[in-house]
Amino acid sequence: MPDLDGFNSAPAAELRPLLAECLAVPRWVDAVLAGRPYASVDALLAASDRAASLSDDEVRAAIAGHPRIGEKSAHGGVSARWSADEQSGVAGTLAERLKSANQAYEDRFGHIYLVCATGLSGEQVLADLASRLEHPADAELRVVNRELAEIAALRLRKVLDRHDTRGS
Asked: Where is the Oxo-4-hydroxy-4-carboxy-5-ureidoimidazoline decarboxylase domain (predicted)?
């Protein structure tokens, strides 16, 4: 589906798996589908953002589908390609530092560190991760929720672009 009109008119069964690649929360997928037709991309993104206010359990479930920052997804498919693109600024010589920082974060919070890495350098990601280690656990889940919402918005734009939703 190359554009918003295609998104609005596509069968829900066709969109559901693509939306789940954007944010793996069934309630969010259902809300985005239920809001169709959207008058504009901005209206779609606003609806996505409203629906992306997630419970702690939904945040934890959504995190499970993401690779650690600096690592490739083991799942393959569209979201693995998107994740690699989103993390492209993190690649390089920082691998060991990221691995160590990821481990400290996981030890502290019990889940992987998640950030919308598009446009961030590896150094920026490391600085963000270090600052977030200071958060109380409940506050950090809310930060992760916002990051998931940003990733979902970024990926929704890709769903509207037929070139990004094709297999490689």
From this structure: 8-157
